[in-house]
Amino acid sequence: MSEVITIGEPMIMFVADSEGDLKDVVHFTRYIAGAEVNVSVGVARLNHSVSLISQVGDDPFGAYIRQFLNKEAVETGLVTVNGRYSTGFQLKSKTEVEDPKVVYFRKGSAAAHLSAELIEKMDFTGAKILHVTGIFPALSPETFDATLKLIEKARTNHLMVTFDPNLRPTLWKDEATMVARINQLAGLCDVVLPGFREGKRLTGRTTKEAIADFYLNNGAKTVIIKLGSTGAYCKRLRSDGQVAETQVSAFHVDHVVDTVGAGDGFAVGIITGILEALPDDQVLERGNAIGAIQVQHISDNEGLPNRNQLRTFIEKAVSKSPEAKDQTTNTLKVI
Question: Entry's PROSITE patterns (predicted)?
């Protein structure tokens, strides 16, 4: 089994070639989308093995997705093909002044019918981290149950479980259900990765410290909060029973092309940093760097860097000006 396992729905993404309302767009460019796909691609590009658990339709979209994943060195042995249901897809607007509009065509997709039975047959030998998000369990009762089963099996096999809430309100029955289910899943995981606005929405807390405490008290061992242009904050329970806090500043980006996928890039940095046993400040720095690189590209995953690109980006940012070191300054406090 690969070092990293994740579960999610890969989709075809059609990005508008011109700005304007999606109903008026004539031409689109095809890409691959899906938060867990983005994470898988990013982990593979940093030379770590990764397996995606999913299900696609027996259609051209499904065939293209499997071809894409194989090309990116993502293990597809756990991507099944379902001849009854179709592969999901989405439309995405083009804009440089705000977040793009995304319209999904995924209800009842092949991935939404993935059952927990597939999880029962999996062998976790050699795996180290399971990464899950709040998107896949929102697709259907089957995918929620499959996610729970996967987390349970991962913990039984002593894997670390990382969780990105990645809120998609339109996929849930209502706000209360979304909050309850996401927090239920978070409480079963070791590392929780909310954005600051997500954390406020999910916990009702208004500071990063209070949001972190909510999840630490709920069962998590580490909470890493994405602070956007401010950077990232980590609060972690250490093995000696003390709590360590670390905050790292963001990297400056001159021109943001598309913010979608930045959080997935951040997760790539966290997961690979943990695999490589980097100290907390370097883990956060890597997450910030990959997120900053990704927002400069239109696709959700095409900008994800290899090792040389990542190293070059960080070195260039740090050497750019006398103040550049502030981009990676951290504060560590043990309480």
Answer: PFKB_KINASES_2
Output the CA–CA distances (angstroms, integers) from residue 271 to 4, 199, 267, 277, in the order listed. Answer: 8, 20, 6, 10
pTM over 0.85, yes/no: yes
- List Cα–Cα distances, 30 to 41, 135, 160, in angstroms: 17, 22, 34
Write the pLDDT tens digit of every residue in 143-164: 999 999 999 999 999 999 999 9
pLDDT digits (tens, 9 = 90+) for 107-157: 999 999 998 888 888 888 999 999 999 999 999 999 999 999 999 999 999
Can 264 be counted among the known catalytic residues? yes
Between 3.40.1190.20, 1.10.390.10, 3.30.1330.10, 1.10.150.20, what CATH number should domain 38-53+116-334 receive? 3.40.1190.20
| Alpha-helical runs (H) found in the chain | 35-45, 60-71, 117-120, 141-156, 175-186, 196-203, 208-217, 262-275, 280-294, 307-319
The secondary element (H helix, E strand) that includes residue 223 is strand 222-226
